Amino acid sequence: MNILDILSPDAIKVPLEATHKQAAIEELIDLLSLRGFVTDGPSLKRAVWEREQQRSTGIGEGLAIPHGKSTSARALTMAMGKPREPIEFGSIDRKPVRLIILLVSPADRIAEHIQALGKVSRLMTGPQFRSSCYDAKDAAELYELFRKSEGIDRPAVARG
User: Fold this and answer.
1) CA separation (Å) from 110 to 43, 67, 102, 121?
2) pTM of the model
3) Which domains, from first to last, does the chain contain?
4) Eight-class DSSP state of 4
């Protein structure tokens, strides 16, 4: 799996306006809705928030990976946001979140959904890569980090 197959440069927002967890998740879903990656933002918000209520997706080291499955997702897709200031997310290490990576998929794409979660998690375990993401000044710089991590030498092209 290649991250760039599910991440579009126009699905990254730096900085996020949100100052708390639910608003940050909703802001990223709104971004996906605006770009046409999902057809029903409100139902996706409910699905992702219900998942978040089961257990926080703040996985530690300043990263959260909220995720959900919904019929409103046209395909497996991802959005990223970097808050202006770290956000309390109920993370396992009790540290606030500096980067939020939202992953959504159609309900029938379970294997790909799990594969994408694993890929993002493995990529973000590298302290140098993670730090570079947290230091990114804008969406283009954040996208470029992921592009380079995939070893891809292609220009950023918006999907949708």
Assistant:
1) 18, 12, 15, 17
2) 0.91
3) 3-149 (3.40.930.10)
4) G
User: What is the rounded distance in angstroms from the CA atom of residue 153 to the CA atom of residue 149?
Assistant: 10
Burial 24-59 (b: 16+ CB within 10 A, else e): bbbbbbbbbbebebbeebebbbebbbeebeeeebbb
Longest dimension (CA), the chain: 39
Neighbours of 121 (CB within 10 A): 13
The total of other beta-carbon atoms located within 10 Å of residue 91's CB is 19
Q: Give the helix/strand (H/E) hosting 135.
A: helix 127-135
User: pLDDT tens-digit profile of 4-35?
Assistant: 999 999 999 999 999 999 999 999 999 999 99
